[in-house]
Specification:
about 140 residues; mainly alpha; 8 helices; about 75% helix; globular
């Protein structure tokens, strides 16, 4: 139910013009599946897990994980919950469709590595990094 609600929310945000929705409905479903698969794969690889290990956590076969990562299946809510729990992320972070704008797998891997590093630093260092990042973005972000 939660997944459906989030899917519908992203659907509404992305395609506000109601007359265009039906034309894009099929493509969006494919995009959501592909994005979720890429994100799960990037998180799994960043955690140095095999498909078999993740499958064991989710109580499914490794083929199901392989199909998920290739974007050919959409997992049920319980599987999404187990994946999010395993990688210590919120379900909404896992399903964050807003950043689907053509991010490559290597980009997702880099983002996940940075996020994991940030999770383990102390508050003072985090404040310093935040200040430096703001400066960099101010001067180099176009």
């Amino acid at each position: 139910m939660y997944f459906i609600a989030i899917y519908d929310l992203f659907y509404e945000i992305t395609f506000i013009d109601k007359q265009c929705i039906s034309r894009y409905k099929h493509n969006m479903k494919n995009d959501v599946r592909k994005y979720l698969g890429l994100k799960v794969r990037a998180m799994r690889e960043a955690a140095n897990m095999t498909q078999e290990e993740l499958a064991s956590v989710c109580d499914v076969s490794w083929r199901t994980i392989s199909n998920l990562e290739r974007g050919t299946v959409v997992p049920d809510l319980f599987m999404i919950y187990r994946i999010a729990q395993n990688f210590d992320v919120r379900i909404d972070e896992l399903l964050d469709y807003q950043i689907i704008n053509k991010k490559s797998l290597s980009r997702l891997k880099k983002e996940n590595k940075v996020i994991e590093k940030i999770k383990h630093i102390d508050d003072n260092l985090l404040d310093y990094i935040d200040e430096q990042l703001c400066l960099l973005l101010k001067h180099f972000n176009h």
